[in-house]
Amino acid sequence: MECVVQGIIETQHVEALEILLQGLCGVHRERLRVHELCLKSGPNLVHAVPFVGPVASEVRLLCDLEHSEPTWTVKHIGGAMRGAGADQISVLVRSMIESKASKNVLRLFYGLGYKLENELLRVGFAFHFQRGAQITVTVSSINKMLKLHATDEAVPVTPGIQLVEVTAPATPENYSEVVAAVSSFCEYLAPLLHLSKPGISTGVVPTAAAAAASLMSDGGGTTL
Amino acid sequence: MPTKWVLHWHPNPGSTVNSQILNEVSQCAEAINGVKDGRWKATLTLLKPNLREDQSQPGEYPRELLGISLPEQPNKYYFILRGPRIVTEADSSIQVIMEKLQSYKSRIALYFEGYQYQLGDFQLRVGKVVSSHSENLRGIVLEVEYLPISSMEKASQVLGEFVDIWQEAVLKRSLPGSFMHNEPNLSEYGLGDNYTPQHTAVQYAYVMAQLFASQSTQAVRN
């Protein structure tokens, strides 16, 4: 399982965010260029959901284009944790499983009867670091392909806006500590952007321009 | 990566495989100076599409998906679609993803398990084949691995010569059958001359098909 929060930031403030993240994390950023394909099972393959009935199952294939030889990962995102306890926390805790796979994995899923639902290209950077949990921060623009798999001709879905995602792996035993670590980290980013559960968009924050200007003027030395 | 042939026991017409043959075969490995070196186990799972009862259309989905775990790669898992000739390697966590997706369900598993033996540059694995449905012996499998060479083409002569010696040792015991090595066309799966665990996975899928085919023939005869 994983803990996750998302937010958005205007592209003009991304450089300031990068400076801030660099200062907070103490590690160098990694470039990010991932082709993400969302597949759904064919109509006659059953995936029974309790109280709902049979629905199509969904799986994501991620192709990391940042390396000379693209690498593939199969990712399954399951249901989010529910209940009063889950409602009270500001971080989404959900089931998530990943598996690295060989380059013909897309052919395998097509062979199994899965169909391409949508595809997108994430371009940006990521920071991986340990801060109470193994946290990953990705800052990326989401691009759509005008032609099938044409990643070189991708165009931004929301020009001028980038997605920021903070994730950390968790287990049923330690998720509350991981939630605390992620929440605590998000507070450092608050002047630049607000992070919340996926699907609950809070927009850009009004203090972003001033915070970005401050960060850019002293290279991240100011304590926010 | 070493090179490997996977062979299976082919009983003579009218005879069946039994544990006495397995014992004799294991003794053969020791008779040619094989040094017993622990146990091994591989698992092949047959998965079927989980189709709606009212809307299953033959041909729309593959009849079966094979999932294989190998002892030399405990953190990996292999999927094979025999129709379109696809073999895919993934982390073993892919099994959990497939369980979550529920689109293909496990129907039967075959366990290949036994002892491994070292003989200089060779490693032998002799094992019984049993299914998840019953403890009856379904077959016997033999892996012959030549450790120094990863080129299948270069290793094929030395593997062939070794298997000839092995067959002679088995023949002396007058057993009702022999080991067969019919290599599947690995290039159809996009596999090259450089040996990988994916080659082993395809060989196991082929052995499974041979076992099922010979047992169906046996059932028809009986």
UniProtKB/TrEMBL annotation, chain A:
Gene3D superfamilies named among the record's database cross-references: Hypothetical Protein Pfu-838710-001
What is a biological process (GO) this protein takes part in?
Answer: termination of RNA polymerase II transcription
Alphabetical list of InterPro entries matching this protein: Mediator_Med18
| GO-annotated molecular function | transcription coregulator activity
Where does the protein end up? Nucleus
Q: State the GO CC annotations.
A: core mediator complex; mediator complex
* UniProt keyword terms in alphabetical order: Nucleus, Transcription, Transcription regulation
Lineage, top-rank taxon, reads Eukaryota
What family is this protein classified in?
Answer: Belongs to the Mediator complex subunit 18 family.
| PANTHER family recorded | MEDIATOR OF RNA POLYMERASE II TRANSCRIPTION SUBUNIT 18, MEDIATOR OF RNA POLYMERASE II TRANSCRIPTION, SUBUNIT 18
Q: What is this protein called?
A: Mediator of RNA polymerase II transcription subunit 18
Automatic annotation (TrEMBL), chain B:
Major subcellular location class: nucleus
Q: Mind naming one GO cellular-component term on file for this protein?
A: mediator complex
The entry lists its GO molecular-function terms as:
transcription coactivator activity
Q: Where in the cell? A: Nucleus
Which InterPro entries does the entry link to? Mediator_Med20
Question: Which keywords fit this entry according to its UniProt record?
Answer: Activator, Nucleus, Transcription, Transcription regulation
Identify the domain of life. Answer: Eukaryota
Pfam families named in the record:
Med20
What GO biological process term is on the record, naming one?
regulation of transcription by RNA polymerase II
Q: Give the protein family.
A: Belongs to the Mediator complex subunit 20 family.
Q: What does this protein do?
A: Component of the Mediator complex, a coactivator involved in the regulated transcription of nearly all RNA polymerase II-dependent genes. Mediator functions as a bridge to convey information from gene-specific regulatory proteins to the basal RNA polymerase II transcription machinery. Mediator is recruited to promoters by direct interactions with regulatory proteins and serves as a scaffold for the assembly of a functional preinitiation complex with RNA polymerase II and the general transcription factors.
Report quaternary structure and partners.
Component of the Mediator complex.
Q: What is this protein called?
A: Mediator of RNA polymerase II transcription subunit 20
What is the source species? Linum tenue
Q: Source taxonomy lineage?
A: Eukaryota, Viridiplantae, Streptophyta, Embryophyta, Tracheophyta
